[in-house]
Design goal:
The complex is a heterodimer. By secondary structure, chain A is mostly helical. Chain A is built from 22 helices and no strands. Helices cover 75% and strands 0% of the residues of chain A. Chain A is globular, with a radius of gyration of 24 Å. By secondary structure, chain B is of the alpha/beta class. The chains are: A mainly alpha, B alpha/beta.
Chain lengths: 531, 300
């Protein structure tokens, strides 16, 4: 038991360090779910209205393929259906973040060495991280349950909904426990886990509920969350699948952790080159070196996603056309072309914020390089501040655009290859995708502006994106106040595939984005370099 | 010619005053020591000098130019090792040395190989895997590999073992021989004593002493150990004598520079058997300025 000595002290350390993060995550998750439920309760309190919504969504394969099938027209079941995928993804990301932060990051920064030299066992850090992350998940589950009960929903089902999300989060916490044993760097562990979160989503869409391969949905935890069906069956036996995998991953994590040295990974790092390549001689070359790993990762993920979604779109539309019930829907949308367009349009709307996520991630490299004092080495050689900042900004601006274009092309190609409509569809999707760029760049601008003026608040751009995500999610299905919707830059994106025309608001967004970037650059020239 | 000229430099961080009217002049070809405890303002001064921080007030000239406005141009002619070396974890040490060297305008490969050898650094390791000392070596090599006019080191031997400290000292002496200017900030006094012509001492953002070691020694006390044939008396009443420990015919004390002659004359009347006098070390100098305890001790 000596291996676990000091776990309780470590738990207290984690709680102290995360006294802001954890409450923020918990409140965000709970408010998100409860808010969706409240909106359903307000806007669809009438049963007939709800039934209409239910039928409309249930009969739309586009919606079903992305969010899963609707199991029941009750307020609770609609809420569970609507939040199932996004809430799983977010709680998964939170769990990955917390786990890596308190295990591999600590080890990488050498702090764990200090701690382990005291009366703290080798498994204490892993245990403390698992316990606190599981704890956060369970608190979220209970609070979601209570929040839904408070709105008059069935108590048992409310808790099942909360717990289904917590089970997903705990599973990813446990798998992260394994991942951090494998890699030496915390960044690699994070990539591995986000890749897994996306991979499982791709599998989920492939095994969509009304498709030919519905059984595939059992191979992904997103599918399990869906199949539990809170307020519509409450198949709580599925929790045992979760429990088995959580227990298995946890055991594997402990076993791997007991095998390796402190600071080492199971996958050992090979020595690198003794000399820099000839090209590594400018701030731009350095920026490319620092951004390329992340860029390749995103490209691979979105090529995969794009081709899978393009392929699924084919089966979705085939199914609609084969069914005479949907004739009116086809006509309404303008034939097969209209149908496929509306599918892709919705998908773009669905994923637009993900590219903004990347834009922030890439922009924050500026901030992290400064706070880690890497930039100081460059700025004290003959590189000007603006050269250095612009070198990095190029990637924060162009990389998300590149990934978006590649994503659109993969959709177009994989759909077009099957249908022999290659050029036509591809060009239309690409055009529609490009309309998202100003909204995506707005987040590059926000981050750059904060970095240039108040660098310690640069991460605030995450909170702004989180707020926009909530607004967009609500706007997607509910008739909320137009004024609120207009706050989101994504509202201003003309949905070309849905027949919107390009209008002035998107140019306004573009102008603001450019202005913010320039303000940031200007501020950065004039302030102290932190260190 | 003055390479570095700082006059009345004041720097505020928000409302906190980090530097208060700092003066510092470093001449060409000089190895200059900048001494002070942690948090005294050494790094802040250096960072203003490098154009990383904006001065609040005062006049700062580096090779005749303004380090804030002409930073890029000035950086071509200087090499800097920061106080806390942090390097990109996914680049190897060899890559960082090449990158920084190239950004500063090129270097000789022969010199690079020589330094790698001297400092015994494995350049194929990723920076994330280096120990503190090895990261320090990477930064030192990246700086020493460049042939520039001015070298600025901020606590350069932090984390180095004594052997490597010796290598660093040798390299600085070589720079001095070649007529380079070096500004060395440190709190390791033996290092400064071994390398520097002149020093400035900074405390709580203010320069409290500047000069050569000889000049500074004047300001302090010589320690004396003496054995006599007759029991010593009355020493405690002599002015200029401090920290006296005494037992019969043996005494140990320190004495103010200007009172040495007077005290020696007094001692001869007891018949001196042996007398040991030691010049003040920089440590004592340092303690005198920094330690409140020491101050109160000597007042007794």
């Amino acid at each position: 038991m000596d291996d676990f000595a000091g776990t309780s002290v470590m738990i207290r350390l984690i709680l102290r360090r995360d006294k802001l993060y954890m409450p923020f995550f918990i409140i965000f998750m709970v408010l998100f779910v409860v808010f969706v439920a409240a909106t359903f309760a307000n806007l669809y309190s009438d049963e007939a209205l709800r039934m209409g919504f239910y039928l409309q969504m249930q009969n739309n394969p586009t919606v079903v393929s992305l969010l899963g099938s609707l199991l029941d027209p009750s307020i609770g079941a609609l809420t569970a259906w609507r939040v199932g995928f996004p809430a799983s993804l977010i709680i998964g990301l939170i769990s990955v973040f917390l786990m890596v932060r308190h295990t591999r990051s600590e080890e990488r920064k050498g702090r764990l060495e200090l701690i382990n030299s005291a009366q703290v066992g080798r498994q204490a850090a892993l245990s403390a991280a698992l316990i606190t992350t599981f704890g956060v998940n369970l608190i979220i589950a209970v609070l979601i349950g209570l929040g839904l009960i408070a709105q008059g929903l069935d108590a048992y089902s409310s808790l099942v909904l909360g717990l289904s999300l917590a089970a997903f989060g705990c599973l990813f916490a446990a798998i992260t426990g394994v991942a951090v044993q494998l890699t030496e760097s915390s960044g690699d562990a994070r990539y591995l886990m986000v890749g897994l979160l996306v991979g499982f989503f791709v599998v989920r869409v492939f095994g969509w509920d009304d498709g030919d391969y519905a059984w595939v949905s059992w191979l992904t935890p997103y599918g399990w969350v869906h199949h539990i069906g809170p307020f519509a069956g409450n198949e709580i036996w599925i929790f045992s699948i979760f429990l088995a995998f959580i227990a298995g991953s946890t055991a594997l994590a402990y076993w791997l952790s007991s095998l390796r040295d402190l600071g080492a990974g199971i996958i050992t790092q090979r020595p690198g080159p003794a000399r820099a390549s000839k090209n590594l001689r400018s701030p731009l070359a350095l920026a490319w070196r620092l951004h390329r790993g992340m860029l390749f990762f995103w490209i691979i993920i979105f090529v995969l996603m794009g081709s899978m979604l393009g392929f699924t779109a084919q089966t979705v539309t085939d199914m609609i056309i084969a069914n005479p019930q949907f004739v009116h829907l086809i006509l309404q949308l303008g034939g097969k072309t209209g149908l496929i367009d509306s599918y892709f349009s919705m998908m773009l709307a669905f994923l637009g914020e993900v590219f903004a996520f990347y834009a922030i991630l890439a922009s924050l490299k500026l901030q992290s390089q400064e706070s880690h004092k890497y930039s100081e080495m460059v700025l004290t050689s003959s590189v000007s501040r603006s050269q250095w900042a612009v070198s990095n900004l190029i990637f924060a601006v162009l990389a998300p655009a590149l990934v978006l274009i590649i994503f659109a092309l993969s959709i177009g190609l994989s759909y077009g290859l099957i249908n022999n409509t290659l050029s036509d569809v591809t060009i239309r999707i690409l055009g529609a995708a490009l309309m998202y760029l100003p909204a995506i760049w707005l987040f590059t601008g926000i981050t750059m502006c904060l970095f240039g003026l108040i660098p310690r608040l640069a991460s605030l751009s995450w909170a702004i994106l989180a707020m926009i995500v909530v607004i967009d999610l609500l706007g997607e299905f509910f008739d909320i106040n137009k004024w609120i919707l207009n706050i989101s830059p994504f509202t201003q994106v003309p949905k070309l595939l849905a027949g919107n025309a390009v209008d002035w608001p998107i140019f306004l967004v573009l102008t603001v984005a450019v202005m913010l970037i320039l303000i940031g650059l200007f501020g950065y020239q004039r302030r102290d370099i932190n260190g | 010619m003055a390479v570095i000229e700082i006059k009345n430099l004041t720097k505020y961080y928000g409302k906190v005053k980090a530097l208060n009217k700092v003066d510092l002049t470093v001449n060409e070809g000089e190895v200059y020591g900048f001494i002070g405890p942690n948090g005294a303002g050494k790094s802040t001064t250096l960072r203003v000098l490098l154009g990383l921080l904006r001065k609040t007030d005062g006049d700062v000239r580096l090779m005749g130019k303004d380090p804030w406005h002409d930073a890029v141009q000035l950086h071509r002619d200087l090499a800097y090792v920061p106080g806390e070396v942090n390097l990109w974890p996914n680049l190897t040490g060899g890559e960082v040395i090449d990158l920084i060297g190239r950004l500063r305008g090129g270097f000789s490969n022969e010199r690079r190989g020589e330094l790698l050898n001297l400092f015994k650094l494995d350049p194929t390791k990723k920076c994330g895997a280096y120990s503190t000392g090895n990261k320090q070596k990477v930064a030192l090599i990246a700086a020493l590999v460049s042939d520039v006019d001015l070298y600025i080191f901020d606590e350069p031997t932090l984390g180095l073992d004594p052997l490597m400290e010796g290598v660093f000292r040798k390299e600085v002496k070589k720079l001095k021989k070649n007529g380079k200017t070096v500004l060395l900030s440190s709190h390791i006094l033996s290092e400064v004593e071994a390398l520097c012509n002149r020093v400035s001492i900074i405390r709580e953002g203010e320069i409290i002493e500047t000069g050569t070691f000889e000049e500074l020694r004047h300001l302090t006390r010589t320690s004396i150990t003496v054995d006599t044939t007759q029991p010593l008396t009355g020493l405690e009443e002599l002015s200029g004598v401090h920290n006296l420990t005494q037992g019969g015919t043996h005494a140990h004390f320190s004495v103010d520079a200007e009172k040495i002659g007077y005290v020696l004359k007094y001692l001869t009347q007891f018949g001196i058997k042996s007398l040991l006098s030691a010049p003040p070390t920089l440590e004592e100098l340092f303690m005198r300025y920094y330690s409140d305890e020491y101050a109160s001790m000597s007042e007794e």
